[in-house]
Design brief:
Blueprint lengths: L2 H11 L7 H26 L2 H9 L2 E5 L4 H10 L8 E3 L9 H6 L6 E4 L5 E2 L4 H8 L5
Parallel strand pairs: 1-2
Antiparallel strand pairs: 1-3, 3-4
Amino acid sequence: MSEERRKRQQERQGTAPPTSPKHLTWGLLIALIVIAYLASWYYNNHRYDKFAKCLAEKQAKMYGLYWCPHCLDQKHMFGASFRYVPYVECALSRTEESPRCKAAGIQHFPSWQFGSEPPKEGVLSLDALSDKTGCSLP
């Protein structure tokens, strides 16, 4: 029986040719690569969750503007963990500032306030935030 005839007969009977070990190996390799990528992505985006939550416990607060490039730089340092950082948006519009930010005396962005201390202006490294609050970095 020819190879082509056998394939047509298998198709009619609804049976597929057996999977070769080579296909299984490639499938397993691709699955492992996808799992490694997803694990790496999750780790990189959530490794600062505990640190960000600690900042909140220590009453650290970031003041920023949605259109400020330095504020975006500061947010990106945390990745997805930034959602746990206490953040005050100071822009009501491009020209009008939030009363909460005016009351806190914020003039430059981003600014960080630690408890009742006066605000510290500028992008702070995660090490500087760790030193200031006593929160440990991963």
